[in-house]
Amino acid sequence: MTIRNLDRLFKPTSVALIGASRRDRSVGKVIARNLFNAGFEGPVMPVNPREDSIEGVLAYKSVSDLPVVPDLAVIATPPATVPGLIAELGARGTKAAVVITAGFGEMGEEGRKLQQAVLDAARPHLLRVIGPNCLGIMVPGQGLNASFCHVPPLKGDIALVAQSGAIVTSVVDWATPRGIGFSHLISLGSMSDVDFGDMLDYLAQDAGVRAILLYVEAITSARKFMSAARAAARSKPVIVIKAGRSEEGSRAASSHTGALAGADAVYDAAFRRAGMLRVGELDELFSAVETLATGVHIKGDRLAILTNGGGVGVLATDALIDGGGKLAQLSPETLEKLNKVLPATWSHGNPVDIIGDADGKRYADALNILMDDRGCDAVLVLNCPTAVADGRDAAQAVVAAVQARNQRGGGDRKVPILTNWLGEQQAAPARKLFDVARIPNYHTPNQAVTAFLHLVRYQRNQELLMETPTSVPEQFDVDMVAARAPIDAALKEGRPWLSEYEAKEVLRAYGIPCVQTVIAASPAEAERAAKRLGGRIALKILSQDITHKSDVGGVALNLLPAQVWAESEAMLERVRSAYPEARIEGFTVQEMAHRPGAHELIVGMVDDSLFGPVILFGAGGTSVEVVGDKALTLAPLNLNLAHEVMARTRVYKLLKGYRNRPAADLDAIALSLTKISQLVIDFPEISELDINPLFADETGILALDARIRVVPVTEQARHRLAIRAYPKRLEHKVTLRDGQEFLIRPIRPEDEPLIHDQVSHTSVEDLRLRFFAPLRRLSHQMAARLTQIDYDREMALVAVPTGMMDADGKGPVYGVVRITADPNHERAEYAVLVRSDMKGKGLGSLLMREILAYAKDRGIHEVFGEVLRENVSMLGLCRELGFAAHDNPDDHGIVEVSVKLQGG
Q1: Structural domains for the chain
Q2: What percent of the chain shows pLDDT beyond 70?
């Protein structure tokens, strides 16, 4: 399930509280009081077999006695009673329940059985369950407080979803005195049914929700979560805090929720890939809430700091640099303007120290100048209390300057302003002014800088979602047969690890250059192989039991061929002494790679139990664990994503070149990452992969050592990707009635230039009929959204004439058809656009039939769309394809069309 019947949870017309109580300090009494006092307009019906009334409201003895079927049931009764109550409610027609009661999955095997019994009772009735073991839910706009929270929340437009009820109460307690309200506050508890993916889908579609905050302890369905998170993050900010960052914290989180928490670094990679902003601590979440509540948006990472105290400006600068931010470089024009309005003793740089006696006018003059500097993406205004200047006067001047700029429209740019008035007693009036003006304000310079860095990271994640990838040479040589052979051999022999030689054969099959390697069964064979290779030699032990060869003395470098025999014998002795039970198959003999100045990197993959293949990049060599310079991302990758993960490492700065050292071939490194991504997608048998070291310099890359772990493939492994990969199986060729052949394939993110080209060959009238608005071109944001789709819930098929494809298989797009499914995957909306010079040739009809066949295969029940009434050709095609047509009740100019897919 996804969002089916969630409206009954959050927009009910009637509520039953089962387990309502009159007993002081009981959960049942607190929930009853909250339900009665929140302003809910529908009936609230308490159920308690031993009470006649609760809080002065008539109580009912049982579910069967309720006079109306409740949309929502809130259950606070002993665990053993819950499955029966769910079954009884479902039979009456209730579609939603919040189970407050604890004592289920978090209590061990018996509790898990009881939790499953709740689901089994709910499923036949499509009854949705939040919980068990939760605080409840609050929807202030609906007057709904079905929780035992101690403070009523204010109404607002921020949604908070958390597994922990304590987090919800803490946030409400913090937010209420600050005037920050919420659209939804949802405690998911054990997530037996409704989970984060469901909530993201639901809240993303709610126009009353401007931002979504998540407190995550564990995720149970990675693909569902990632699909929902990516969709939500495209439409509104999603901020997440993940508990269980340490190994001990993960165990604590697991025991609290009854679900296993994954590795924190992998969660971090998943959140980033989904376009969400992760914060580390609860106070950062509060700061993020405060920042979001003011609606601040940012376009860059260059911060100007305006202060009346040099020391506090230095503190802010330190926090900025430590966090990876940048001080804005003030332009000569800005410095000249500041010289005219500031005392001669001002700092003459950034931070802009306007001296301790600065009054409101000085603040306003300096702020206006900084807001005009195109090198400043945001301004942080700091104020230290002094005896010679009024902090409130300075705050009023800042507010007036910001409001005046906003009223003027800010020219063609709006510069975000963040503030920090230090102190308490003197700062309080200033903070109140900023709150009223919706200007972010913080208690310390560090908090303010952290908020700025959060905005920068969020914006970067959003840009990554919308960035058009560089085109990958899709036809890079892949020899599937050669890659398959060593994998099958290892599985047949029951070996979990491929030999180094076999691992390199797999890599070569995917076009990754590897150092030449020869297998030798004995010291004598090793010497002969060394003489054939010539030059300096690297000798390594060959054993399926030894993965870290250097740890047991199994690596010797820079040998002359004449030294190999003796070193082989000595190596055997060392290895047998260190690891006597290891099975020795012989040696690998390889030529030493002479690439002075090459960087040693590591590229790898591990199959995470939750998120599937995780790609690793970082500084390599024998000290890789000690150095710890690595970054992770989820498969699948394109070149942009590969460059992004590379840029998050320290070694990346070296790879870009410095002093007289040339830059490494960054594109070759990025391409190797995309090839590894494709390899582990093609072969779900691969559970672990390391290339360490991978040499990289200006001439390219070279793999020196590699290891690959394989496991028998399972059905689960075939679907292990948290983000669905490009569905290459859908590629096929078709022929129009005039004989013209087309390749039909799914759209790719790098198709954005092709979509712009298609639009340029489409008339303004045809574009109006497709987009319901006059336009001549698509914005980058719109084109990116049309090409960067989630293959799990959307599909767009493009038609490319094969006769115009180049050697790399690329060619113009003549037509696009797409469907976007609802989160329940029951209905999907279609859209189609064909170049104007292709009209009347049957391409539109062919594309429509293709997408309907795809929708039916995916189990979608109905495809629908909206067509302008004057679009006669589209309406005729719909009739031909079996669509029913209906007038749009709200717009006579629009016809609604739909078709049921038999067997869907």
Answers
A1: 6-292 (3.40.50.261), 297-466 (3.40.50.261), 469-514+593-723 (3.30.470.20), 516-588 (3.30.1490.20), 728-900 (3.40.630.30)
A2: 95
